């Protein structure tokens, strides 16, 4: 309990540091949101009164930077993320809430599938090390993962989408024939549109899970407690899952927690190539439009996801590894 309390204190400090950097970094970018908005609206020659009115309308302040920082913290405590300039008059929270489900549905399912499939393949290869699977599967997966991420996405897009028209080449669902909602037609349309981006994410990350699990399992299988379990005549399934895999999977927990944080952050390149309506694509457009409020909102969501994922990893470590509990005691 004492360890978890100290870890929670660390996460509180890390959250404050993330919020502070979230406030500072967008303001280091050249230009200003008003200039970007005027160029977009082709209204460069305007009076100072118009510019002041726009700043007030968008919630921007001319106060000193420290005062702006205090105002920013106060707005966060009240759940106010500001107004998105590039999506005016919608608020940042309205923009994020409409795109987060797309990223969670695509990247979340892809990361979980990649982790589960890669871990299982790594367990099987390690148990049958030196065989045909151990000689062929890791090199093939390593070759696939060495392909640049955007090249793989473009190749799948060209071959499966443009050349053969098996899958759509952009978007999140069929906007012409399907209405958004929890209907069967919409879910099938979203699944159809998200297949290529999901396959890209899974193929790009699968080899990492396989190699880590395979190497860790090989080391774990040589431990005395695994040999004792085999000598006792326990079944292969029980030895693998209860004795070997449970301990071998511990190093992958941290990597999986970081991957879970990417679920909220989105996969920027994937969403850009496939024009997928997720958080990554929103963040890219916000940076191009100097939309401070939306950039800060995306950063904040990503920071919260990273901290929450690491906290979950600490809890899982505490449950799976008795050495952590013994050290705490």
From TrEMBL:
Compartment(s): Cell membrane
Family matches, as InterPro entries: MetI-like, MetI-like_sf
Superkingdom of source: Bacteria
Bilayer-crossing regions: 7-25, 100-127, 148-167, 187-212, 248-274, 294-320
Protein name: Peptide ABC transporter permease
An example Gene Ontology CC term for this record: plasma membrane
Pfam families: BPD_transp_1 (PF00528)
Protein's membrane topology: Multi-pass membrane protein
Domain ABC transmembrane type-1 as annotated: residue spans: 100-313
Organism whose genome encodes this protein: Dictyobacter arantiisoli
Family as reported in the entry's similarity comment: Belongs to the binding-protein-dependent transport system permease family.
First-listed, main subcellular location of the protein, grouped into a coarse class: membrane
Taxonomy of the source species: Bacteria, Bacillati, Chloroflexota, Ktedonobacteria, Ktedonobacterales
């Amino acid at each position: 309990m004492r360890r978890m309390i100290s870890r929670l204190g660390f996460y509180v400090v890390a959250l404050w540091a993330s919020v502070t950097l979230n406030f500072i970094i967008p303001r280091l970018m050249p230009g200003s949101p008003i200039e970007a908005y005027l160029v977009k609206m082709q209204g460069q020659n305007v009076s100072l009164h118009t510019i002041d009115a726009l700043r007030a309308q968008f919630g921007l302040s001319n106060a000193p930077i420290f005062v702006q920082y205090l105002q920013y913290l106060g707005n966060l405590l009240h759940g106010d993320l500001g107004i998105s300039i590039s999506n005016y008059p919608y608020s940042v929270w309205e923009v994020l809430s409409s795109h987060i489900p797309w990223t969670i549905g695509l990247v979340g399912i892809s990361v979980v599938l990649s982790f589960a499939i890669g871990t299982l393949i790594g367990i099987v290869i390690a148990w049958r090390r030196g065989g045909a699977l151990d000689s062929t599967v890791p090199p093939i997966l390593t070759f696939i993962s060495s392909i640049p991420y955007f090249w793989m996405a473009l190749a799948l897009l060209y071959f499966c989408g443009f050349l053969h028209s098996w899958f759509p080449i952009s978007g999140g669902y069929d906007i012409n024939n399907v209405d958004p909602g929890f209907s069967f037609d919409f879910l099938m349309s979203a699944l159809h549109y998200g297949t290529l981006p999901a396959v890209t994410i899974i193929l790009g990350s699968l080899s990492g899970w396989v190699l880590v699990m395979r190497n860790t399992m090989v080391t774990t299988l040589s431990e005395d407690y695994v040999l004792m379990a085999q000598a006792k005549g326990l079944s292969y399934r029980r030895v693998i899952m209860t004795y070997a895999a449970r301990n071998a999977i511990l190093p992958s927990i941290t990597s999986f927690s970081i991957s879970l944080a990417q679920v909220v952050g989105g996969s920027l390149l994937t969403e850009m190539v496939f024009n997928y309506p997720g958080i990554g694509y929103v963040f890219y457009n916000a940076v191009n439009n100097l939309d401070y409020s939306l950039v800060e909102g995306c950063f904040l969501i990503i920071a919260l996801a990273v901290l929450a994922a690491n906290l979950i990893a600490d809890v899982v470590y505490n449950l799976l590894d008795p050495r952590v509990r013994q050290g705490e005691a």
